[in-house]
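HUMAN:
Just now I want nothing more than another pair of eyes on a protein record. I would be glad if you read both lines and explained how they fit together. I have put the entry right below:
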Amino acid sequence: MILDTLNYLLRFVLLVFFQIAIINNIDLSTYVNPYIYIAFILSLPYNTKPWVVLVLSLLIGMTMDSFSSLPGPHIAATVLMGYSRRFYIMFSTNKDDQNAPIKPSVSTKGPIGFLIYALVLVFIHHFMLFFLEAFSFNQFFSTLARIFFSTLFTVLLIILGQLLFYKIAKK
């Protein structure tokens, strides 16, 4: 229990540091803004209490907002993603898996299962984040393009991180 908590605390700090110190300082394109810090919420075990997921989403969103120029969009987007995560898990897994300490990853869900899980939740996060940043529908299609390309690139980075840092389960 204590080791798991320390592991998640370390993951929280490393993902936020990597996002702030490295990813935010790389200018890829107007349409590609990856946010890998949300991998923290994606990797929480299925049986994590919903209120814990929301509090952790709030904390990581607040941490990201404290280093950005706009107050609030990361909080709103990350909390929405954490809230949506519960419903995605309810509809995509059986009751036994929902109550098990299974950590969503490429090795536990399989490549396609994790890809769909990550795409859905990252899309929800990016949709909320980019429309809050734009705060208008004047650039609707431009914002949709940012959401689409940033979602794809974020998921690609998260899956690469999964393949590099997680053990692949043998069947």
About this structure: The mean pLDDT is 90. The helical segments are 2-21, 39-42, 50-66, 73-92, 95-98, 106-134, 140-165.
